[in-house]
């Protein structure tokens, strides 16, 4: 079993070949190839971390761009009549992991 933990959008995600990831918006078009920074690589009994990861590459293919669910933000201050309501939707990119290689 081969998998890797990659740094993607301020988070760490465990990925295998074929995993579909949703990350913060990437500056890439559909069907472009992107490379992720590995944090950990596990290949059976072999575990690579730290400076051993210089030879490990994790690549993926951009599937599409999308927007996350709407988050409603409300501010309210008691006894002053102040209230404010805003919404937010994150820009996301969906990526399929195509290859995890060790040189």
Automatic annotation (TrEMBL):
It holds the Pfam family Ribosomal_L21p. The keyword Chloroplast does not apply. One of its GO terms (cellular component) is ribosome. InterPro entries: bL21-like (IPR028909), bL21-like_sf (IPR036164), Ribosomal_bL21 (IPR001787). The keyword rRNA-binding applies. Keywords: Ribonucleoprotein, Ribosomal protein, RNA-binding, rRNA-binding. SUPFAM superfamilies: L21p-like. Part of the 50S ribosomal subunit. Contacts protein L20. Belongs to the bacterial ribosomal protein bL21 family. This protein binds to 23S rRNA in the presence of protein L20. This is Large ribosomal subunit protein bL21. It comes from Frondihabitans cladoniiphilus. The gene is rplU_1.
